[in-house]
Amino acid sequence: MSEEMRPAAAVQPEPLHRQLGVTDGELDAIRGKLGRDPNHTELAVFSVMWSEHCSYKSSKPLLKTLPSRGHNMLAGPGDNAGVVRIGDGLAVAFKIESHNHPSAVEPYQGAATGVGGILRDIFTMGARPIAVLDALRFGDPSDPRTRHLVDGIVRGVGGYGNCVGVPTVGGELVFDPSYQGNPLVNVMAIGLLEERMLILAEAPGPGNYVVLFGSTTGRDGIGGASVLASATFQDQDPSKRPAVQVGDPFAEKLLIEASLELIDRRLVLGIQDLGAGGISCATSESADKAGTGILLDLDAIPRREPGMAPWEVMISESQERMLATCLPENFPDVREVCERWGIPIALVGRVTTDGDVAIIEGGIGSDGKPNPAAKEIARIPAKALTSEAIVHYRLATPPARRRQAPAPGIPLTAHDGLPERGMDPAAVLAALLGSANLSSRRWVYEQYDACVQSNTVEWPGHGAAVLRVKGTKKGLVATTDGNQTVSALDPYLGAQLSVAEATRNVSITGARPLGLTNCLNYGNPERPEAFWQLQEAVRGIGDACRTLGIPVTGGNVSLYNEYPGGSIAPTPEIGIVGLLDDISLLVRPPFSAEGDNVILVGESAPGLAGSAYAALAGLASEDSAPSLDLDREAALQSFIREAIGRGLVASAQDVSGGGLAVAIAECAMWGGLGAHLRLGISGSPAIELFGESPSRLVLSCRPRHAAAIELLARQFGLPAVILGTVGGDRLRIELTGQGATGAAEERGSRVADALDVALADLRHAWDHGLARALGVEPSAAESNPEPHAPARGGAPAPGGAPKTGAAGATGASSSGATPKAG
Amino acid sequence: MRIGVVTFPGSNSDVDALNALAVAGVEPVSLWHESPDLHGVAGVILPGGFAYGDYLRAGVIARFSPVMRGVTDFAAKGGLVLGICNGFQVLAESRLVPGALLRNRSLRFASKIIAIKPQRLDSAFTNKATGAPLHMPIAHGEGCYYADEATLDALEAKGQILFRYVRADGAPALDPDDPANPNGSLRAIAGVCNEAGNVAGLMPHPERMSESILGSDDGMQLIRSFVESAAAWETAR
């Protein structure tokens, strides 16, 4: 059928456009852009470029409201990845992206190509990828299909990252019933570059060569952006499998090396990877960005199979391909580099002045013009596909059945659950630590190479990832966080909480958040309620970022996360990269020395909705979630960075999932040191122990520093209470005050007056929870309690890197000597 | 003194080896897979990664690369060759060290810190080690050491077993199901050398535990052993 196609040949009136996911109104808009009817090839190109995934046509008006300026930002939204300067002539590039629907159809390849795609976004900026974090969300862990997806997706992330030689250093694994029909695979990548390496995805200079290098082009991934990513999911339809791309991490590894060499030697002027939308997207974006056009010769594109129609070549999403622009005189060198790395390369076009992406067959002459016998297949203004693509202003409507519950933070009664039912709080704590969402993720991360490239300072498992920057004193701290449970109740608050938690996780190491990347996973934007959730989330992220002073450096929107029977909980996945100016000042969560004081900074607010405790106790989520005061959050984060900078802090952990008791238990388990604490209960023991009100942290310090920390906290307007002392092999939290046990006993409760449990028991629950939930063999490393035996002290020796195997100060037992589990 | 690090297409831990050599104060030389010329180095490291994508079987394609001709000749003259992880797989496929590396017993990629113990301290690869267990990472899918019983007996008799996975109490994790034996290796073998003692391979990554900021510098005991033995060999020639 390609034989008949000419730009002038009008599309037959059959609703081909609808088959391609183009609405009648959008077809009219296409006619307006072209001044005529599109032909088949043009329609196919428009269908992918105007898909939600490529065009952000629903979310663009919202995303424009996000604060995206920072004085150290070198690249931001609209570029392949955000780039932020870190000093010493260096910068970091980072971005998070989703690969949800492909992973649901073909878990291994879907996840693998998700990693490949985000890595290309990083090295396309001139940065060497140095780390990956994967945020995964699934339905019921006991369901066989969930287990199949978990296994395949984890293998896919590992299979790609391990081979390509980029360590996977962190991420999340969350189970929530709302993801049963639609798992989420969000992958964040971080790269490091010298500022001089920064390069953009543009095709400047009319007459310059346009080259395509990397893998050949095939029929895999046809319509990935439009068919899979931009439509509601019917089921795991095997007929959609050809729309999933197939990854080759070996090819990607070669592509990284060749691309970075081309950029380093300044052989290319602009470079763009071929992701969603394939060559259509790469050519139109590169031309639009430079204000040029591109003449593309389809015959020159190396194929992996014969008989492909022009539209198939144009929208194929075959992986591991790059488009670059170079001066004609540099082409031999460009070819030499690619050939040395064993990568096919082809001269496929020229930069032109007319602003069009013009597609021909029949070759380009030495004069840069189509050969006389060549024929034009399609011609589209580049802008019409990218910067001037269609925008939809969607209707946003709050749900009619929006809960009647009080506003966040309003005190409620009779929601404090388990202790009143006479349960031992230690048993609740063990149950939380052993739950599918809070237990050790070791079974997952032990399938990922975490230390290739020799930069990994903090391995996965204990909060934020930490990487050193070779040749400097600097460190990078990275995390992903997303709160879907509160988002389901209140998408504005949920998004704010996600930003607060992610930035807090970075700040408690002493690092300063540099910027934020977000992956917004929401439902069908044509449904007003789903679009309202997205709108509220963007508003929440914007407000949080403005108050915390953090620029949004880019991100990705994944809509249509629905399936027969439901929609996912709104999921604002937040990725943060922070900078430690002096990595020797790094502070980690584990308790580090016997006799240290344990201090709680911040105070709890009422409300258990959305908490892990509420899920465990089976509490209805109709009550309120804890409120968030962004100014207080900002003060808390400034306080802890200041305290760490002054060398006052031995360990720090934020209070989040599972509440204060879980936070303290993690510090204790990970440090191999117990604690003896007293906690005043003013209201409900459940809220104080297991509530998840934000803007709180637990730190430990040498006793001589406790007064200085209390004073500093007061200066930041934060309450700080010394809870007790680190030591022993048990965690004991005595409950005091009017809301505590005495009162409970008077009411006839058998609740214990203390949470008192052996660390080994907590450790056992935490170690085995995930394997039990998934029905897999526990990790073979269960007898080796620490991810890495040689531990660093919580308070590093001044002026240098912490010494191996010994805690920084007094003769405390190091975490390397953690007692065995069970 | 110069030590070469081979880069095959798909090598990814070559940067770790180069880094560790720099930490050891040695001039590292990058050796490209397409040339058998070793540029007069005093020792060669075959690094970790996925040489040629590890398609077909780990290390099996790399065996036929031009640089391996140079490495084989170098080894025949007594030059020191250390294969780490994928490099060990390449050496085994090249028959430069005995045995084979099978898929991990778990059938999953394994990335974690494990403990190994040098089995002798008089070899070129261990002579600067203290003899205490060394903690270092593994990161492989095919690291289960296998050889037939007669070969294993011969390796023991000739002192060719250089490293064993050990438990927290320091005892070798001989049971393939012992959690301290991370891949099910027979007789807990983590590393071996050839009969002449100048070619060795191991699955764990000493070069990634080269600085205390990375958690430990245990690996430098082995890197220093190798480097100083190579220097001695070069001087003796």
The termini of chain B sit apart by: 14 Å
Q: Which descriptor suits the 3D outline of chain B?
A: globular
Walk across the major sheet of chain A and give the strand order.
8-10-7-11-9-12-13
Structural class of chain B: alpha/beta
Number of helical regions of chain B? 5
Provide an overview of this structure.
The complex is a heterodimer of chains A (822) and B (237). Chain A is 32% helix and 21% strand. Chain A is an alpha+beta fold. In chain A, strand 15 and strand 16 (475-481) form a beta hairpin. Chain B has 5 helices and 11 strands. Chain B has helices at residues 14-23, 66-76, 86-93, 149-157, 219-236, and strands at residues 2-7, 27-32, 43-46, 80-84, 100-102, 110-118, 134-140, 144-146, 161-165, 189-193, 199-202. In chain B, strand 3, helix 2 (66-76) and strand 4 form a beta-alpha-beta unit. The longest helix of chain B has 18 residues, at 219-236. Chain B is globular and about 45 Å long. The mean pLDDT of chain B is 95. At the A-B interface, helix 8 and helix 10 of A face helix 1, strand 6 and strand 7 of B.
Summarize the structure.
With 822 residues, chain A is an alpha+beta fold. Chain A has 26 helices and 28 strands.
Features:
heterodimer; A: about 800 residues; alpha+beta; about 30% helix; disordered N terminus; B: about 240 residues; alpha/beta; Rossmann fold; 9-stranded mixed sheet; 5 helices; 11 strands
